[in-house]
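Typical record is below.
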Amino acid sequence: MGIYIYNSEQISAIEESCQKTSSVLKELEKIVDDGVSTFELDQFAKDYISKQGGKPAFLGYHGFPSALCTSINEVVVHGVPSKKVKLKKGDILGVDVGVYFNGFYGDSAKTFKVGTVTPEVDLLLNVTKESLMKGIEKSVEGNRISDISNAVETHVNKYGFSPVKEFVGHGIGKNLHEEPSIPNFGEPGKGARITNGMVFAIEPMINAGTYRVKVLEDGWTVVTEDAKLSAHFEHTVAIIDGKAKILTL
C-alpha cells in the first residue's frame, strides 16, 4: 500500500476526527470510577461518538465487538468491555478509542487511574507518557521511523520497564491502520524517512516487567506474560512544516 502523504485539507479533516477521539477520552475521565463496569464506559462512548456525528472506528473492525478497548492492570491492549468487569480502587485502565468521521480516522489512548495508585504505578504511567512525548519529539522531517522507536525504548529502559514488541504504532488517515508500522523498540536510523504530510499514531505499550505477552482465549485480550502491569498512551500526529503536530490534544 505504501505510505500515504496527505495534503493540508486532508490533514484538517483527520484532525477533526482526532478532536472527536480525544474528546471521548476527556469525557470518559469524568466517569471512570470504582464500581463502574467497562461495559458502561463502552455504552457511553458509543452514544457520545454518535452524538458527535462520528462512528466508533473499532466496532466491528476485524470482528471486534466494542467501541473501546478497555485494558485493566496486566491487560496490555484489546481488552473487551464487559458487564462483569468492574473497576476497583487502585486499578489502572488503558482506554483505546478511534473515531471515523467524514472519511477519515482518529486514534488515541490513555491510561487512567482508578482512585489512588502506588508510587510505582504512578512511575510506570508517567514514564510511558513521557516516552510518547520523546517519540513525538523525534517525529521530524529527515529523521527515520525507527528514531521514534528508539527514543521510546531508550527512555523506558532507564527505569527498568519494557516496550511490548508484538504490537506497534501505525500510519492512519483514510484507513485505521496504514503504513508505516512504528515499533516501540529498535535501533535508530532505520525505516522510512519522515516527510511532511505523513500522519501516524505513536502508541507506547510499556510493561512493568517482561516485554512478553500472550493472547487470552477470547482471541482479543492481550496480557503480560508475568501478570505485571502495563500502560498505554497514544497520540495521532501529522508532520507539518517539518515537525509533528499532535492532532489528538
